[in-house]
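Annex B. Sample input.
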Amino acid sequence: MTALDAHTFLLNWYKRFPQSKSIEFYIEGESYAGHYVPQLAEVIFDENKNSTEDTYINLEVFVIGNAILDDETDQKGTIDYAWDHATISDGVYNSIKKNCDFISNLTEECWDSLLKYYNVYKIINVYSLYSPTYPLDQTKSTKMFCSPKNP
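Annex B, continued. Sample output.
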C-alpha cells in the first residue's frame, strides 16, 4: 500500500510540477527503507510498462544501504560482521552458528551464545568500531579538549 500511495504521490507531483518530469528519478534509503525503496521501484517499473507520456516516471536508479531486510538475514549479517571485524572470538562465532538459526524460536543454547556476543557491544561502539571509546564517567568532550592549565 505504501508503494502504491507513493507512486500516486509522484504522479500528482509531476502533474503539479511538469518541469521536473524530464529529470532522472533516483530513490535511495537506508535501514527500514530496505523495504520501501525496492517496493516503490517495482511499482514504478511495472506501471511504466503501460504508462502514457503523462504517467511515465523516469526511474534511473534505486539504492539501499544498510537495509533491514528480515530478521534471519539481518541477524546473520551482524554476527558475520562482528566476527569478520574481530569483535567476537571464533568460539563465540562458531557457537552462534551452531546454536542459532534465527528462523524459529531461539533456543536456550542460542540465547547463551548471543549473550556473549551482546556483552562485547557493551565495551565498544557498535556503530563505529574503530572510534575511541570512553569510560562511562568521562565524557567525550573532556577527553578531547584540554585547558591550557591542564594539557
